[in-house]
Amino acid sequence: MFRSTPSRRPARLAAIGAAALLTAGIGVATAPAASAATTAPGGWARVAHLSPDTKSVDVQLTALAGGAVVYELDDVAYGAVSPYIPLADGTYVVSMVPSDATDGTQPVVQQSIDIAEGEPLTVAAYGRNADLKTTVFEDDLSAPAAGQARVRVVQASTVEPTVNVDTAQGRPIARDVPAGSATDYAAVPAGSWDLELTGADESATSAVDLPAGSVSTLFVLDDAQGALTAQTITDSATLADMPVGGIHTGGGGTAAATTAPSGAVAAGAGAAAVALGAVALIAVRRHRRGEAGA
Length: 294
Description:
With 294 residues, the protein is an all-beta fold. The chain has one domain (3-291). The chain is 2% helix and 44% strand. The protein has one helix at residues 272-276; strands at residues 3-5, 28-29, 42-50, 57-63, 69-76, 85-88, 90-98, 109-115, 120-126, 133-138, 148-155, 162-167, 172-178, 181-183, 186-189, 191-198, 203-210, 215-222, 228-236, 284-285, 288-291. Strands 2, 11, 14, 15, 18, 19 and 20 form a 7-stranded mixed beta sheet that branches. It has a 5-stranded antiparallel beta sheet with strand order 1-5-4-7-8, with no helix packed on it. It has a 5-stranded mixed beta sheet with strand order 6-3-9-10-21, with no helix packed on it. A hairpin with a 4-residue loop joins strand 12 and strand 13. The protein is globular. 46% of the residues are buried.
């Protein structure tokens, strides 16, 4: 469970320990809305804990200018994604520390982020505890067309270096998605989908529900048995659920220049795809990556 509070005390720093895992299966993760850290115009950031053998962490967002801790999140467990946190324009440092750590220990994971007006970001820690990495994904909460949903895939499993996501009918959604990457969002017909996750050695099945008007991320993760699993996070279920202040849909998020690595192609799925059972392939886009301690 998240407890989110704008911070009024110095930063608490600590080291990462080991061992919280998701149980098998898929679920929709939700969290209470975060308290506003600022009322000034700006953007939004949220934090994702995607390291399967790393215990629950506390997260701090520190303003680079002045060094003030502007926001804290407590007890963020594996597979959890925080609500969006409103932040004024500027550069911030995100630090993750174990929830039971003592004061004064250096963080194992830090990542700088640049907040720009109208743009939402997701900061993710992923990989095994011994080799934690961080990355920043640019989110795009643009509303889909009527009767459609928008979805992307984030590959954070340590079981397989790349994964494919297909419908149960064999129609591809995402191909050869490498660990630590996110695909572009793609428009698909709203509804319930049975999905198959496959890698070189492991496979699993999952069911997702994509309501009309929703924007979602499908996170591919590890389960408690060390197999593939997934969970769906609703980035924005409706326009009313967007971060306070709305999202600039013209040039924000992934509307900025993106490129597709080899092994993936992009296409939108139209209403005719319902009858054919087809879903668009989603192109893997480049993202900014920072190593742990960067």
